[in-house]
Write a structure and sequence with these properties.
343 residues, Rossmann fold, nine-stranded mixed beta sheet, two-stranded antiparallel ribbon, 13 helices, globular
């Protein structure tokens, strides 16, 4: 039987939601300042942007900058997507200084094939953009896998951070943290599910299976469209943006190395971040949490976990929005970004 046939069988066998085993620090219950829907929506307008190539080591990061009022809003994508994740939000942020960029390995940024893609490195990329564009007290907007970069940057540079906006993201171990099925295939999550120590090549990590899928363009495309397609609520939006987000995986060089290596670093990153929970509790900067409540992976319960650990946070759950909350409810998300408190 061919590798492709075996991989197909295994994909269908293990496409089940991955639930992390977590032991979180006990925190006193906090009454949530929770709204099911904001009262207003932002108005849209067309805006021109300036493109930058920010030097980062031997590589360059692609950045779009919209001029406007301060403080700047820096919006970050997760995986497996890029800055186009905010295409529906940006028109509603007209008049505000907005910066979007592609992390190294994604979108229009450089994609070095033998690069060591890690979550810590993404934090350093964010820092390089803030410094080189001289962004003062930025409001950091993170989604999905960019949560660690935004939160760690805020913890390390609290007085230089205007605030945080968290969109269906993750950071540390909590009982509510779960992962999409595709991440369960590619990520090394075993250290989060058991205290047993095994080598990275242990079959429980699905390393050979994930590599076979990554090397099979047809199978990877099927998995991508099946998984990422579920992140959208509206079919018309899905049909427009899903192919656009996938383009980066078809290019040469491709985004696949960044996707695979970041997944391999996921367990380590979450474990390390879990050692900083006390710093989250001590963080006194403004934090706004905006989650699509119909996301089956990064759920409303996870949003409430964030609300518990950030003492200055407020929480908004958009009832019908899914994982791509900014695609499902762009006007509402933009309004909540524009009205978020900053230092």
């Amino acid at each position: 039987m061919s590798i492709r046939s075996l991989s197909t069988i295994f994909v269908f066998l293990i496409l089940v939601s991955v639930k992390f085993s977590a032991h979180s620090e006990t925190i006193a219950d906090k009454a949530p300042n929770q709204l099911s829907q904001p009262a207003e929506k932002a108005n849209a307008c067309a805006q021109d942007f300036t493109e930058h190539q920010v030097q980062y080591g031997e590589n360059q990061l692609y950045v779009r900058e919209y001029t406007g009022t301060e403080p700047p809003v820096v919006m970050m994508h997760g995986f497996p997507d890029n800055l186009h994740l905010y295409d529906r939000v940006v028109p509603y942020l007209c008049g505000r200084h907005v910066v979007l960029f592609d992390f190294l390995g994604w979108g229009q940024s450089d994609k070095p094939e033998n690069y060591s893609y890690t979550f810590d490195d993404q934090t350093a990329q964010l820092d390089a953009i803030i410094q080189q564009l001289d962004l003062q007290n930025p409001l950091l907007v993170s989604h999905d896998a960019s949560g660690p970069a935004a939160i760690n940057r805020a913890l390390d540079h609290s007085e230089e951070t205007g605030g945080l906006v968290l969109l269906n993201t993750f950071y540390h171990l909590t009982p509510s943290l779960s992962a999409p099925e595709a991440i369960g295939i590619f990520a090394d999550l075993l250290e989060l599910r058991t205290e047993r120590q095994v080598e990275p090549t242990h079959p429980w990590t699905f390393s050979r299976l994930s590599q076979a899928i990554a090397n099979d363009k047809d199978m990877f495309r099927w998995l991508y469209f099946w998984q990422v397609g579920s992140f959208f609520r509206d079919e018309a939006v899905r049909e427009k943006f899903l192919p656009r987000l996938y383009e980066q995986f078809k290019e040469t060089p491709s985004t696949i190395p960044a996707f695979v290596k970041l997944n391999q670093d996921l367990g380590h990153s979450i474990g390390a971040n879990s050692q900083r929970v006390a710093e989250l509790i001590a963080f006194d900067g403004p934090v706004r949490i905006i989650f699509g409540a119909s996301d089956p992976y990064l759920t409303a319960d996870l949003a409430k976990d964030f609300h518990q650990v950030f003492p200055s946070s407020d929480l908004f759950l958009l009832p019908t929005a899914r994982h791509y909350v900014q695609m499902d409810e762009p006007a509402q998300v933009a309004h909540l970004i524009l009205t978020a408190k900053t230092r």
